[in-house]
Amino acid sequence: MQIKYxxxxxxxxFTEIFEKDSYLMSFINNNKTSQxxxxxxxYCFQPNNNKHHIAIAFxxxxxxxxxxxxxxxxxxxxxxxxxxxxxxxxxxxxxFLKCINQLPIFTFALIMDKNFNAYKIKGVSxxxxxxxxxxxxxxxxxxxLFVNFKDSRIRSSISTSQEFIYMLKNKPNVKLxxxxxxxxxxxxxxxxxxxxxxxTNHKNIxxxxxxxxxxxxxxxxxxxxxxAFDMIFHDFQLSAKNKNQLLSFFSNQNTDYxxxxxxPDFIAGALSDMSYTKVSNKKFIPILHECISNQKKISxxxxxxxxxxxxxxxxxxxxxxxDIVWNSIDWDKLKD
Length: 336
What we know:
It is globular and about 55 Å long. By secondary structure, the chain is of the alpha/beta class. Helix 1 packs across helix 7 and helix 7 (176-198) crosses helix 9 (227-239). Strands 1, 2, 3, 4, 5, 6, 7, 8 and 9 form a nine-stranded mixed β-sheet that branches. It has helices at 11-20, 22-30, 66-79, 91-102, 126-147, 152-170, 176-198, 214-217, 227-239, 262-273, 285-292, and strands at residues 36-44, 53-63, 106-113, 205-210, 246-249, 298-306, 309-318, 323-328, 334-335. 43% of the residues lie in helices and 19% in strands. The chain contains eleven helices and nine strands. Residues 325-336 have low confidence and may be disordered.
């Protein structure tokens, strides 16, 4: 009997959007000889009263060896050492923006209204959805155990998924918002990995490095990897055509390349601050002018719910008119 697994809610949507995004596809095709890729990600999931959006950003770095990535990490460290919250306008700030534009990278960013709940599903409670997700993880890794009986990492993944299942069934105060954040971010990362794998004809080493917050720390233990890693591997293996890839992850204790997270940190910070017509904090304006307006280096989308369907609007920033344009694209197949 074939075992049935459960892919995340937004998997199909992001797969189709990525494949239709000509700038993202050109970036991957132009770098398809690279055999090593890193995705750095940062988030603004809890915007304060001065912010307008939830914003998440994923910066893709193709490279050939660790020396390359270490060199750029040191370059950013020497150019600008502060994250966006502690930054102010000055020479270092502008030099850092120039550095971002010169690096061979591409960023995918997603924004949502700050009270938007992507996991409010008609006829299905959030707990039911997440139970399906973690039950699929549990069944997948149990099946893998038949092939690799002595693999302690698989046993750890089974144990982690069972802990989440028990929590969802028996504990009243589950942080469903946090589970939604984990689900959304891991869906995006696994789909980018799938896009890279399926558009290259060789084995890649693909690494995810996340800012250290609840996405990595929720329910995590020192002797186990975060559940987010298990979800990415599960979703990638179930969806990618070219599965012969090495996926790896920085642990939440690893700070070797923290400087590179400053790029998605700046982008997520600016997008979180952005309203429909302007940016309220003046330090975010040059980020929009110099970085976010460059469609060859970044794609920004807004996730909305409209008449029972989820939609993605592409966000364009006109650096000449200084306007933000909300340009709807054709993707409205996902019903809530």
